[in-house]
Amino acid sequence: MNSLVARFSCIAAILLGAAELRAETVGEARASLVEGHVGRLGELAQWCEEQGLDREAEITRGWLPPVEPLVLFVPLVEDATDRAAASDRDARLSQAWRERFDTLRQTQAAALFALVARAVEEHRYSIGFELLHETLREDPQHEAARLLLGYRERDAHWLTRYEWAKAQVNQVWDARFGWLPKSQLARYAGGERFFKGRWVGAEEDARQRGALGGWEVTTEHYRVRTNHSLEEGVRLASRLERLYDVWRQVFVRYYLTDAELGKLLAGGGLPVRAMLRYNVTYFSNRTQYVEALKSQEPNIAISTGYYRGKSKTAYFFAGEEQDDSNLYHEATHQLFSETRNVGPHVGRDANFWVIEGIACSMESLVEGDRYCTIGGADALRLDNARTRLLRDDFYVPLAELTAIGMNALQRDAQRISPIYSESSGLTYFLMFAQGGRYRDALVDYLVAIYTGRDGPQTLAELTQTPYAELDRQYREFMTSNQFD
Length: 484
Description:
Blueprint: H1 2-16, H2 18-21, H3 26-50, H4 54-61, E1 71-75, H5 81-89, H6 95-121, H7 125-138, H8 143-148, E2 152-154, E3 157-159, H9 161-168, E4 171-174, E5 178-181, H10 185-189, E6 192-195, E7 198-201, H11 202-212, E8 215-218, E9 222-226, H12 230-250, H13 252-255, H14 258-268, E10 278-283, H15 286-293, E11 306-308, E12 313-317, H16 324-338, H17 352-361, E13 366-367, E14 371-375, H18 380-391, H19 398-401, H20 406-411, H21 416-436, H22 439-450, H23 458-463, H24 467-478
Parallel strand pairs: 9-10, 10-12
Antiparallel strand pairs: 1-14, 2-3, 4-5, 6-7, 8-9, 11-12, 13-14
Helix pairs in contact: 1-6, 3-4, 3-6, 6-7, 7-14, 12-16, 16-17, 17-21, 18-21, 21-22, 21-24
């Protein structure tokens, strides 16, 4: 594997060009690559317009999201073989454009991959991990990047270890029905269901399963139990898998040490760990949700989702009242609580603000074409935080805020709502201020809190910045022209 990685790195270094390689840091080199790629895509889009290829021009211009200072771009790794074939069948797509578009992306992928080694040299392991995913968005068939992330090739498709095991027993994934034996897919599409060793109609299946508690949908990382329907359970599981994919990239240093990341990026592979699945219960409606949970959580009626750490289960319900932001919020609590071993009293005595702040920041997740974004100057939680600070003149200094634990905050009825808003704003600040200067420290801070190794001064120590100075920088961040 190391020789393969070296070969790709050598090719990409040539493509990258001496001028771009002179960039001072891996972050600057990546920014330079993105800027150049945007320019070349723009030139191709202009050529398309000159040829009357409006559809192709739109695809080309929209390939990369706008570069914004308060937005995290999170590429998604997909097996794009089928999607590419579908595009090729579209008569409106010019073969000449397709070849030029693919060449630009493959060249960019090679150059991005070449920067992984520099990220390791600079000990910027999270950037190296991001570069692998950016490489695969540009070129889903990039062999070296796929191998580093643990994929295996089968019949021209790149599969995770879980997907490989499914393929070995002839199971396939269907967006409506989840994982099924390939031999059953046509009958499911025709309205039949396999239940207790025999085939029945979909309505009979729903009646019998409803009496037994419903369906269980299992994906690579989730187990969703629902009494609504198979299709709705699969839809929810798919959305959660997408969230997981984003979370694992942004917070990779939460569940992998720098030593593990360095080994992965050098070709040593992912650490072998037991398969972990997150349990989710999905009710048919709000009434069932409230009735089932009111004895555990007295205020459940005012919520639209709930993660209960004691049962290691997230609870949601179907219907128009359910919204993505709450789903992302509670599922984020679950990911931080269960992905690694955590202490028994997380945030009880101090630093509770960031536990809610990080979940609030994930509410801003938006899906694009093979990528997601987090943040944005217009994100609701960030806008609320600016209102609290700039209009209401409400701000609890970090020296005081970090000393507040969960119990104390929940008893503070007068300030709990504005503190939640401030917590969201401070989390955005740590993620985005000064080009992400404190982003790694934020993840280290979360690790310390969830493992029970935190104290009131932990954030100051990890950022190497006194709280009074962070307070000043926060106000400067919230009044900057990034919000204009």
